[in-house]
Amino acid sequence: MSTNLDHSRVINTLLGKFEKNFLLWLASKTPPCITSDQMTILGVVSSLFIALFYYLTNYSKYFLWAASFCFILNWIGDSLDGTLARYRKKERPKYGFFIDHTLDVISEMSVFMGIGLSPYINFEYALLALIGYLILSVYVYVKTFVTGIFQLSFGNLGPTEMRVFIIILNAILFYFGALEFSIFSYKLNLLNLVGLFLFIGMLFIFIEKVYVDAKVLKEIDEKNF
Fold first, then answer.
1. How far apart are the C-alpha atoms of 169 and 57, rounded to whole Å?
2. Residue 157 main-chain phi, psi, to 5 deg
3. Cα–Cα distances in Å, from 125 out to 12, 113, 225?
4. Adjacent-strand bridge partners of 188
5. Which residue ranges make up each domain of the chain?
6. Handedness of CA 114, 119, 124, 125 (dihedral sign)
7. Buried-most residue among 41, 67, 85, 222 (CB within 10 A)?
């Protein structure tokens, strides 16, 4: 049985190579007075501001740019905390893994609920996307515990690509609005469609991955007993 001390990270994303090199460069330039814990706090606090700015889009669409800027801060905080610890050889495997991924729940909930409070999506579709994200997160953490493989990407997409996608969506919303579509006489706007497709896509990935991994684990257990 693996633990969070000996898991291996699997990150095969479109931006992965560039992101890794850029984070190492940032870590080398980060002043000693800035710690990994401060980066973790930055990630969480920026997610709360993302939620606030999405809510404020009810009063002005210009807050979409503020939300996009906070997504960049969220990426810096969420990605640089672990990189900084590894670069400085000050890793705390148990504490770091526990704090980082429990606080991720707050960040994810804040972002999706904030989007749901904006005028661009129905709240239930934002919650559907959140449910899909959390379902996939549960799979990742259970697989990490059982196999020691911490899978952070699916189909060459990971959290960073998701942030970039949302920032692009914010720009589309700013310039073109919600963009309504009619599907089988049922009207949905752009973000409602995105929320629905995200839920369906992540649920499909969850089912497929659980089925495949369960077969492999069953064979391993049957060989051992």
1. 14
2. -125, 140
3. 28, 10, 46
4. 181
5. 8-224
6. negative
7. 67
Nearest alpha carbon to residue 50 among 83, 23, 72: 72
Q: Which H/E stretch holds residue 220?
A: helix 190-224
Report residue 140 CA to chain centroid gap. 12
Angle at 62 between CA 60 and CA 68, to 5 degrees: 130
Question: What are the tens digits of pLDDT across the range 67-124?
Answer: 999 999 999 999 999 889 889 998 888 888 889 889 999 999 999 999 999 999 999 9
Looking at the DSSP assignment, which residues form a beta bridge with residue 150? 9
The pTM score is 0.90
Q: CA 128 to CA 100: how far, in whole Å?
A: 24
CATH topology of domain 8-224: Four Helix Bundle (Hemerythrin (Met), subunit A) (1.20.120)
Average pLDDT for 62-69? 98
Q: Is the pLDDT of residue 198 over 90?
A: yes
